[in-house]
Design the sequence.
């Protein structure tokens, strides 16, 4: 399908039709053709999708900004030197995950230590309560004269019964 439709000049010299045809050609070129070298300040953008029909793009510069395309060689080189941002992000995420796992293990260990300490405290409290009860019984026995000397039933660590 023709993109530019020109007026027919049917013989003779019709300057207005020739000029109109040149104007149409100039408009098409100026409005719809991507030029290789554009003057500074003139628009140079593609306004529709570009289908390159399974062909290759050549001579791409190294990407500088996030939206710049990269060649396969640039990506391979970046991976080889460890500059790939996705690889660095993945390594940071793995490191963070390991740190979290370590912190969870420490917290779990601290929780187990706290539980063990609670059990020891519970045991000590029960033993202390038992000793206090025994001491009270001995005191009653001393008070009623059944035992004459309380020191016979105690040590430096508490009451013996």
Sequence:
């Amino acid at each position: 399908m023709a993109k530019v439709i020109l007026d027919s000049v049917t013989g003779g010299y019709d300057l207005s039709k020739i000029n109109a045809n040149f104007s149409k050609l100039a408009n098409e070129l100026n409005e719809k053709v991507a030029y290789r070298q554009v003057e500074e300040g003139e628009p140079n953008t593609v306004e529709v999708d570009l289908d390159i029909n399974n062909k290759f793009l050549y001579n791409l510069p190294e990407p500088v900004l996030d939206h710049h395309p990269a060649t396969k060689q640039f990506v391979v080189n970046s991976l080889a030197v460890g500059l790939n941002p996705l690889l660095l992000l993945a390594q940071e995420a793995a490191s963070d995950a390991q740190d979290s796992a370590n912190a969870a293990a420490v917290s779990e260990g601290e929780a187990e230590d706290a539980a063990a300490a609670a059990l020891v405290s519970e045991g000590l409290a029960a033993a202390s309560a038992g000793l206090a009860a025994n001491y009270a019984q001995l005191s009653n026995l001393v008070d009623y004269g059944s035992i004459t000397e309380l020191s016979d039933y105690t040590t430096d660590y508490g009451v013996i019964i």
Remarks:
- The chain is about 55% helix and 0% strand.
- Residues 15 and 58 are 44 Å apart (CA to CA).
- The mean pLDDT is 76.
